[in-house]
Amino acid sequence: MGGVEEFLAADHRRLDDLLREASVVPGEFDAVTYGRFRSGLLKHIGMEEKILLPAAARFRGGEPLPIATKLRLDHGAIAALLVPSPTAEIVAVLRSILERHNRIEEGREGLYATCDRLAGGAAADLVEQLRVAPEVPLSPCNDGPKVRPALARAIRRAGYDAEADLLLAAG
Ligand SMILES: [Fe+2]
Ligand SMILES: [Fe+2]
User: Fold this and answer.
1) What's the predicted TM-score (pTM) here?
2) Residues with Cβ within 5 Å of ion ligand 2?
3) How far is the CA of 101 from the centre of ligand 1 (A)?
């Protein structure tokens, strides 16, 4: 079975591929492919925040999963990294956070497997809700003066201090 795990882990792979494709030329980011990565990742986060985590809480009688707070902080950091135009530093931090974040979601004890177990016979319905999730309206990248400090704060809030320092030093 493994409906949620299969569906959302495949989306991780698709997004990894898009990011790799967007940066095949060192030091350059293909705007169209990076745009597809960016909108796909925001939609993915939306599916987890608006559909998956609330469903998990419902299956637990209204009690959110203990890991939900950490995951939401990570999502805040990841979404903040998608605000400015991509640079080598921003994408390096994004990759490093995504790698650790996705590890919490995938695997036998991960978020997705936990949701499949909680959903039981309703897992297929849950996947169907994910499948029809709406696209996220995308704002253009913003490189204004407040973006970098706000980004560093969001990353620090999620516990990635070294990454926040790296971005502030590079900015
Ligand atoms: Fe996530
Ligand atoms: Fe995910």
Assistant:
1) 0.95
2) 105
3) 6
